[in-house]
Structure formats: structure tokens, C-alpha cells
Amino acid sequence: MTKRIGVIGTGFTPTGTRTPPSEISAIVSAGMSAELIETRLSLFPGTPFERGLGAVGYIEAGIRAQDEGFDAVFINTVGDYGIDELKSALKIPVVGAGEAAMTTAAMLGRKFAIVTIWPTTLNFIYDERIRSCGMAARCIGVFNVLAESEMSPRGSEEDPVKAMRAGKAAMIDRIVAVADRAVAAGADTIVLGCTCMAPIGRAIAARMTVPVIEALSAGYKFAELMVAMRLKQSAAAYPPVSAERLALARKLVNGGDGAPPKEAECDVCAEAAE
User: Fold this and answer.
1) How many Cβ atoms are within 10 Å of 138's Cβ, its own excluded?
2) Are residues 226 and 91 in the same domain?
3) How far apart are alpha carbons 174 and 208 in whole angstroms?
4) Least confident of 65-74, 145-154, 259-268
């Protein structure tokens, strides 16, 4: 019987489909299927408050995936939004792209660096993941490609994130230069700090002398591994919650009656909708 993995989050505007990112579709193993589970509450995690509010949407999506009979969920963001809560809420395996990518880096080397397209103002996301995953002794730091001043307007022709996803040589050069700087600082492994960097992961890896971990692919494969090995998070570490408590997440996201809202366009990464 085919095992179903729910991919939570698109990293861009809602598609209205169940088709996961193409980088996942290309690596789905025999006997597995990957389906997109879009969040109904999504916003750019520009502050800790917005990250926390957006995590509620990921939690609700994970509960929905379990209700629909999925065998595992993969959180498609290096921020792993709502991961601890979902590990407590669900009886199926929960894997986050950030946690999986850092674990892979720790297996392949002794010291890794996170190289991210995003500016330093979003480093609180990485700081939390490094701390929560117990990777402070293994990560030499977060190396940022863009400055905050370059982040506006999103989705325009001048948007550098859009240029990156399109594989523009100038942006790839900039990312490689930052990765080289991380290696010079002592990193023996590089983690790409956003699943939005998946389209250029191979291009970056081809130019580096150390392993490059592309978080979207690594995280999805970890989810397949958990299913294949019949493993899931420990109930001793993540105590399960009641069905009544799970219903609260549905109400928070869907409204007082739990009915799904009308889907609205997300402002997370509009440039990738094309």
C-alpha cells in the first residue's frame, strides 16, 4: 500500500492543488506519494509574533493531514514552524526541514554554517532552531546573503529572491561567495537556510568544495525514512493531547464553528507563484 506524506506549506502563494514542489516530486520513492497540504493561515514571519501566529496555521494543517489519513507530515520550512506542537498533537511522524537539514550536516561534518538568502533581521528564526535542536556546538553561525534594504518590493522584477529562484547567475554568485566565506570561517558543511533556495541547491553544491545540504529535499527524505522504518516521535518527549485540544487549533484557524475560511493569497513569497 502506498504511504502518503503530507507536505505542509508551499513557501509561496497558495496553488489550490495537491501538487508538492517540483523538487519533491522528482525524488519521491517507490511506494510513497507526496501531497501538498496548504496552510489556511499564512503570513511572512518577519517578527517572532508573526512566526508564532503563522505556526498556528501549520499546526492546523498537520492535524488536518492526520485526519485525512496521511502517514507522515513534512514541514516545508527551515523554520520548522509548529514542529514541537505537532509532534505532541499527531500520532504520525513529524519532520521539519530545518531539523533534518542540520541533523544531516552534523552527520557529514563536524562544523556547519547556515547560508540563507534572508537578511539578519530574520536570524531569530535560525537562532531558535539551532538552540532547540541542540546544534549550538555544531553550527559556527548564520551567514546572510541579502540586506534588509534589498527585500522590497517583494514579487517585483527587482526582487532578489525571485532572481535567485530563477537561477540568475548574479544571485548564485553572491550565494557562493557567502558560502565560501563561511567555509573560510571554519564550516566544513553548508546548510541552505530556506526551502525557497531548493531550485538553486544543485548549482550551489556544484561550486562548493564541502557538502551542501538543500533542506527541502533532505527533510522530505527524512520523512520517507521515518515511514519506512515505522518510527515516530517519542510520546515521552512529546506528550499526546486530547481530541478536544486538537479541535481548538481548528477553531483558531477556521473560525468559531471550525469551518474552513475562504482561501486568501499569502504574502510569504509571492515571487514563486509564477
Assistant:
1) 17
2) yes
3) 13
4) 259-268
